[in-house]
Design brief:
single chain; alpha/beta; Rossmann fold; 5 strands; 12% strand; globular
């Protein structure tokens, strides 16, 4: 059975960590959309933002999202924090598979990101700003979870 799972949420919410664990649990490939973009562009997201522009990055992100959807019949994908907010990405993800909003508290994310100087938007925006701008799109996900247990509950094997 083909299955496509898209994890959305703020930077630092745990999408990659939980995505790897969920993909392993389900026995399907894991895709980190940001890493796919970096491989394709042969440069870091941070340098794409600074050398080209956020708009250029968002076009690349949209293209790679659609490429992965076409190329792989099944996967768990950790999207970038802004992926659902540009073009028709959230609509596409909802149509193509199951979308799950990893709704991690801002306090927990701040503790995780204290030493993070890599994320481009974290240099200019606060998590509160990002959540205010993005929450409407995140809430369009099929499900919202706040814990690993909540996420795994969505994928329990039916015993029938």
């Amino acid at each position: 059975m083909s299955q496509k799972v898209f994890l959305v949420g703020l930077p630092g919410a745990g999408k990659t960590t939980l995505g790897i664990q969920l993909a392993d649990h389900l026995g399907i490939p894991f895709v980190d959309l940001d890493l796919e973009i970096e491989k394709h562009a042969k440069q870091s997201i941070r340098s794409i933002f600074s050398e080209k522009s956020e708009a250029y990055f968002r076009r690349l992100e949209n293209r790679k999202l659609n490429d992965v959807i076409k190329e792989l019949p099944t996967f768990v994908m950790a999207t970038g924090g802004g992926t659902p907010c540009f073009f028709d990405n959230m609509k596409v993800m909802n149509a193509e598979g199951k979308t799950i909003f990893i709704n991690t508290s801002i306090d927990k994310i701040k503790r995780r990101l204290q030493q993070d100087t890599v994320r481009p938007l974290m240099q200019t925006k606060t998590l509160e700003d990002l959540l205010e701008k993005r929450e409407k799109q995140y809430l369009q996900a099929d499900k919202t979870v706040t814990t690993k247990q909540g996420l795994f509950e969505l994928f329990k094997k039916n015993s029938s």
